[in-house]
């Protein structure tokens, strides 16, 4: 049964609520989202609740991080449904600003990270990470949480956020939350809603394929060889492959030949839908 | 007689000191400087003391805001002298980080403002305002003051800082401090130390000339006409003129013809030294 969740829409009201918690000695965690809440987001709320006394969830579909041909206008929006789900999951407050509150007239500031962003999703989505870095900087400074939680599904994004938070001395701890998957392995994503029934049947092959890469790497197969085999497999199944990559898990630098610790990351298109996923390769 | 001033060199130590003041209910103002302290800086410390219980002065010669052919290495440095002067002026703490504390290995984040920075000093000093925005964002987030004080001599810089502080929701009030001048009108600047005796004699003509522009504007003379006359005057006195401009005092948009409220801004070279100055034109 959905409880109601308190909702604020301005920086002023958000800060007033957070200040009251601080006054009472409570700690605060922030879970930034673009709405279209699924069990992946809810797992981040659960994690946030285990790390802080109060959990703020933000809901803002950030225009800055969408390219001109991307799905900003089509992105699924249903605040009432999201609010109910977040309340049930234990979020104490929903922060849902409108675009005018986030980007007032004359807005002209950008936060950008030059390292980590050039390739992988940065190559096919120019300006995407600038948009992420700018809005996340704002959300962190608006809310001033002790911790902020981001899903590992957007693994490159998580590293970018950790980088600018360190570089700019934003006083918050960034925590990554594990990927939540469907029973067949498909990583939960708001964009899975775009998949046709036929595409939905094929989609889990993405996860199966990168797990195969991780297994191959663990057995000593070379990184270039394993990722090339994965690309062939995905293309033969009907995916258009943006990248399949084996990278250093901290720096995202490319790895070649046999690896120890690594991250396997992939982005593909299935029809009109872009899907991303990643899995760790444990140190041998 | 110089008192000693407490000095910290790390973000951790700075935050520990500021947290203790907060715990005691005290407010904090930050005065960011690049050292080479003169009476202009000290007036900002005095202003800061009138606005907050505690005053932190930072001293960091920021490499990011110097161009490759500018005077980063030659910039005057004398921390002991600066520390004594700041202590006498009533600063409670000196924060003097080294470059490794500000820009650790892997540093790769930039704060940039697209509006306000394209021309005037931005035209001749590419990347300068990115460097300012990045380091000031860091200093503000490191110290977390209630107010931060910047001199109006760097008028364009002051507007840029106000802009990104608003845009990124940095929770601080930015306060401008009036320009302090020598008896002959020359605006105090750390770079005045570079002037030869002959150049020092000529230098006050910069202030005299932009005051003449302001007078002319107040009498209804057109902005283009008045600034062109000023350029001619400065060049005939031996200055190499970077710009003399009449601008909107808030947006820095160019003004033409008769004006009401405006700011007259100028940048010139005198020998190897770059000098800037500005004066208000009151609304008629």
From TrEMBL, chains A, B:
Catalysed reactions, semicolon-separated: (R)-pantoate + beta-alanine + ATP = (R)-pantothenate + AMP + diphosphate + H(+)
EC number: 6.3.2.1
Gene3D superfamilies per the UniProt record, alphabetical: HUPs (3.40.50.620), Pantoate-beta-alanine ligase, C-terminal domain (3.30.1300.10)
Top-rank EC class of the record's enzyme: ligase
Keywords, comma-separated and alphabetical: ATP-binding, Cytoplasm, Ligase, Nucleotide-binding, Pantothenate biosynthesis
A GO molecular-function annotation: ATP binding
Positions with a binding annotation for beta-alanine: 65
InterPro entries noted in UniProt: Pantoate_ligase (IPR003721), Pantoate_ligase_C (IPR042176), Rossmann-like_a/b/a_fold (IPR014729)
Protein's cellular compartments: Cytoplasm
One GO BP annotation of this record: pantothenate biosynthetic process
Family statement drawn from the similarity comment of this UniProt entry: Belongs to the pantothenate synthetase family.
NCBIfam families, per database record: panC (TIGR00018)
Miscellaneous information on this protein: The reaction proceeds by a bi uni uni bi ping pong mechanism.
HAMAP family: PanC
Protein name as catalogued: Pantothenate synthetase
Organism: Methyloceanibacter superfactus
Gene: panC
């Amino acid at each position: 049964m959905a409880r109601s969740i308190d909702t604020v829409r301005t920086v002023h009201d958000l800060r007033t609520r957070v200040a009251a918690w601080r006054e009472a000695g409570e700690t605060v965690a922030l879970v930034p989202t673009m709405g279209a809440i699924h069990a992946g987001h809810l797992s981040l709320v659960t994690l946030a609740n285990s790390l802080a006394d109060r959990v703020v969830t933000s809901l803002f579909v950030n225009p800055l991080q969408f390219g001109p041909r991307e799905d900003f206008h089509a992105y699924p929006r249903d605040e009432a449904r999201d609010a109910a789900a977040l309340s049930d999951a234990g979020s104490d407050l929903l922060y849902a600003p409108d675009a005018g509150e986030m980007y007032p007239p004359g807005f002209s500031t950008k936060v950008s990270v030059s390292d980590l962003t050039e390739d992988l999703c940065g190559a096919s989505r120019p300006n995407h990470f600038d948009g992420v870095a700018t809005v996340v900087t704002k959300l962190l400074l608006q809310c001033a949480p002790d911790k902020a939680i981001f899903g590992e599904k957007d693994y490159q994004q998580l590293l970018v956020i950790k980088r600018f938070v360190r570089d700019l001395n934003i006083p918050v701890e960034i925590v990554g939350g594990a990927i939540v998957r469907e029973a067949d392995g498909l990583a939960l994503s708001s964009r899975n809603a775009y998949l046709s029934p036929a595409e939905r049947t094929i989609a889990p092959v993405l996860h199966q394929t990168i797990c195969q890469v991780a297994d191959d790497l663990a057995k000593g197969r070379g990184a270039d060889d394993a990722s090339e085999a994965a690309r062939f497999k995905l293309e033969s199944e009907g995916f258009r492959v943006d990248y399949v990559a084996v990278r250093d898990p901290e720096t995202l630098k490319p790895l070649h030949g046999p690896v120890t610790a690594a991250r396997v990351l992939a982005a593909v298109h299935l029809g009109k839908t872009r899907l991303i996923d990643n899995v760790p390769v444990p140190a041998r």
